Amino acid sequence: MSITRSIRNKLFVLLILMGALPLIIVTMVSAVNMTEELEVNAEKTSLLKNSIVSQYVTELCEKNFHVLRSLALNPMVIRCLEDPNPKRLDDVRNLLYDTNTIFHDRNLTALTGADAQQIVRTDGQPLVNLSGRQHFHEAMSGRSFVSDILISRSTGKRIVVLEVPVKDKLNHPIGMVQRNFNLTVLQDFIQEYDTDDNSIIVIDRVGKTIAHSDEPSFNIEMESEENGRYKYIADIVKNESSTIKTRIDGQEVLASYSINERTNWIIVTIQPYHLILEQVYRGIFNSVVLGMAILILVFVVAYMLSLRVTRPIIQITSAADKIISGNGKIDKIEINSDDEFGQMAAAFNKIRSARDAYQLESELDPLTKLYNKATTEQIGRMKLQSFKDIPDNDTIMALYIIDLDHFKEANDTYGHQFGDKVLLEFSKNLRKKFRPNDCIGRFGGDEFVVIIDNLPNIEIVNRKARDIKQVALDLVIDNIYPGVTASVGVAIVPQDGVEYEQIFQAADKALYYVKKNGRNGFYYANAEGIY
After folding, report:
1. 342 burial via Cβ count (<10 Å: 0-12, 13-18, 19+)
2. Nearest of 482, 358, 373, 380 to residue 429 by alpha carbon
3. How many CB atoms neighbour CB 179 within 10 A?
4. Fewest CB within 10 angstroms: 50, 190, 360, 452, which?
5. How far apart are CA 406 and CA 318, in angstroms?
6. Is 484 within 8 Å of 406 (Cβ atoms)?
7. pLDDT 10s per residue in the chain (531 long)?
8. What is the Cα gyration radius of the chain?
9. How far is C-alpha 286 from the chain's CA centre?
10. Residue spans of beta strands (DSSP E) within 91-232
11. What are phi and psi of 95, to 5 degrees?
């Protein structure tokens, strides 16, 4: 009874001291709910802004495309591409100059032939060859296209190109007519539209800035990387609108992004997160002040009591965590009190002893002492995670699934004890062919799995596969040749996948191919022929 009373008194004191807990919970829940509500409102407002900017971008593009399509259908342009004599070139040049008056700007309008060579342009700059430009190849495939940010080969300036293919009577592309997008107009629009503390950014498919409400164009011009400043946003964007919490220039922000369907550009509205937090802080300030005195008292007394109460709890919890995580070494818990903590410590010490005895048995196959199926899968997933955690990993991994051919016939002919000896001898010799840190497991019956990592090239994978075949061929049990061979399916990481299920399925399909085509060989997933 005294033991029970000891723990009960401790818990009773703790419950009294935690009288302030409801106040803390209410304050925290209110703060969380207020934060979530403000985040939702911020997202709705930002996505509305994105929609307005996206509509403006679409209207600008369609205005350009309308004129470009008219030019592409003009017989004068078609004849000039088919036979660009000086008279036709002059006529087309005048036609393109007249087009500039529609837009009230001097942006380039140009005509390019099927050989990628410009034949007319309106800005007076040298004619250039566009064979290396994506938008030219899009036009030659018959598509109208809006490019990402490019550096003009004639002027060195940042440009965006809109192009429309010009087709002959057989509807075959024979060239294209293009016009540079007026970035200044878009830049001015979003700077005028963005009147609060938010920022509006338009970026292309690789994260390069097309327009920015907080930065003048000359700052944007300085962005010259192959992949732009906001590439990390472009990488996570899917085909829908959403909001993420991230950091930009060292500041935590909410970034709401949308896709413009006409250009595949990304419109991002960025709201500094501190603006939301300021509203939350104001909302909970009064309740925090009211509860501060109570919390100080609770913290002081609870801390003093925890020095006596929590020490054994920490020891026992730590031991339990190590047992759950499979830690190889767990020290004995030294708690000599005569209350429930002492009883729990004694119980955990018994669990520790039993765990050490059973751990090894639970990880291994009872017959061969190789890893069992569960352990093999666990090690395989760990190796794959380590592989993925290394940036720009230039090594490879391999997973082999091995099936012993004709094992059933040997087992039926010479008996189960002989069959067990075949499996034991094969396992022992197989282990000799691999490194200590390689994973070798038995999945049951005559099926084995080997996982090896940190390989510099495919030649080692080939050699190990041949070693596996040879181990099976060299088996002799009690002076009897059992006549077994090995069929091996091989999957390579990363080319066959980086998830365990992917590479196992690939290797399993490769094994099936070997079994179906004569056995006694190895085969790579996504390859041709058995080796």
Report:
1. middle
2. 482
3. 25
4. 360
5. 50
6. yes
7. 444 445 545 555 565 656 566 666 767 777 777 778 878 888 888 888 889 999 999 998 898 899 899 999 999 999 999 988 999 999 999 998 887 777 777 788 999 999 999 999 988 888 999 998 998 999 999 999 998 888 877 777 788 999 999 999 999 999 999 998 878 888 888 888 877 778 898 988 888 888 888 877 656 665 655 667 777 777 777 777 888 888 877 888 888 888 988 888 889 988 888 877 777 777 776 666 666 666 666 656 555 565 555 566 666 666 666 655 555 555 666 666 666 666 666 666 666 655 555 555 568 999 999 999 999 999 999 999 999 999 888 999 999 999 999 999 999 999 999 999 999 999 999 999 999 999 999 998 999 999 999 999 999 999 999 999 999 999 999 999 999 999 999 999 999 999 999 999 999 999 999 999 999 999 998 775 444
8. 36
9. 43
10. 109-113, 118-121, 145-146, 150-151, 158-159, 161-167, 173-180, 199-203, 209-212
11. -65, -45
Per DSSP, the three-state class of 133 is coil
* Kind and range of the H or E run holding 443: strand 439-444
**Both tokens assigned to 190:** 């979003």
Answer yes or no: are the C-beta atoms of 51 and 42 closer than 8 Å: no
Distance CA 335, CA 259 (A): 62
First vs last Cα of the chain: how many Å apart? Answer: 75
